[in-house]
Amino acid sequence: MDPKASIERLAEGNRRFIAGQRTPVDLVRRRQATASGQRPWAAIVACADARVAPEIVFDTTLGDLFVVRTGGNVVDELVLGSLRFGVETLGAPAIVVLGHYGCGAVQATCAGDTPEHLACVCDEVLPSAEAARARGGTAEVEVCDEAVRLHAEAMAGRIRDDAFLGTAVPVVWGVYDVATGEVRLHDTAGIDAG
Ligand SMILES: [Zn+2]
């Protein structure tokens, strides 16, 4: 599958999820069909938040998505290494960084009350939280929502900066709305043109 088809398939799956039209799947057959190998058609970096399960919000099943999840969808060396495997070895044709509104890691960072034991996550979100604050949103929720977007974009940039990944596949970022179920994807223009 090419990157354009990959992103379109994700968008179509999300539209089904929003509408409550989940594709019926025989998981036993699917498990048997994928036992001998995997060929994921997209790689996703998402937050560990229990409401942000990529397989569900994109209406996919076993073997479809190569998913890496961390608190606050932070991209570090371990995530980059995992993505290299998903792209180079398994052939995932595109990467999506999926932030989400109502992200606890972003909220804690924006509020400036990061507990010591969460510093390793929140420190990574801090530049986006500060940038969102500097843009002068009036309400706290506006600042947080902007920080969610900036942080997802920044993590996508971190992947593009990787010597291998940056040249191997397009990297898209998106934000998931935990209330409506909608994933809004960004930076897809290059894929359309290519
Ligand atoms: Zn989160």
Describe the protein in words.
- It is a single chain.
- The protein has a five-stranded mixed beta sheet.
- It has a single domain (3-193), classed as 3-Layer(aba) Sandwich (Beta-carbonic Anhydrase, Chain A), CATH 3.40.1050.10.
- The protein contains nine helices and five strands; from the N terminus they run H-H-E-H-E-H-E-H-H-H-H-E-E-H.
- The protein has helices at 3-19, 27-34, 54-57, 77-89, 104-111, 119-134, 140-160, 165-168, 189-193; strands at 42-47, 65-70, 95-100, 171-176, 183-186.
- The chain has 194 residues and is an alpha/beta fold.
- The radius of gyration is 17 Å and the shape is globular.
- A hairpin with a 6-residue loop joins strand 4 and strand 5 (183-186).
- The longest helix is centred in the last third of the chain and has 21 residues, at 140-160.
- Bound molecules: zinc ion.
- Zinc ion is lined by residues 47, 49, 72, 100, 103-105.
Overview features:
194 residues; alpha/beta; Beta-carbonic Anhydrase, Chain A; 5-stranded mixed sheet; 5 strands; 14% strand; globular; binds zinc ion
What structural class should be given to the helix and strand makeup?
alpha/beta
Give the % helix: 40-55%
Number of strands: 5
Question: Would you identify the regions where 5 or more consecutive residues have pLDDT less than 50?
Answer: none
CATH topology: Beta-carbonic Anhydrase, Chain A
Number of helices: 9
- The CATH architecture term is 3-Layer(aba) Sandwich
Q: Main β-sheet, in a few words?
A: 5 strands, mixed
Distance between the termini: 14 Å
Bound heterogens, unique: zinc ion
Strand content: 5-15%
CATH superfamily: Carbonic anhydrase
If you average the pLDDT, what whole number results?
Answer: 95
- H/E element order: HHEHEHEHHHHEEH
The dominant shape is: globular
Spatial strand order of the main sheet: 2-1-3-4-5
Structurally, the number of domains stands at 1
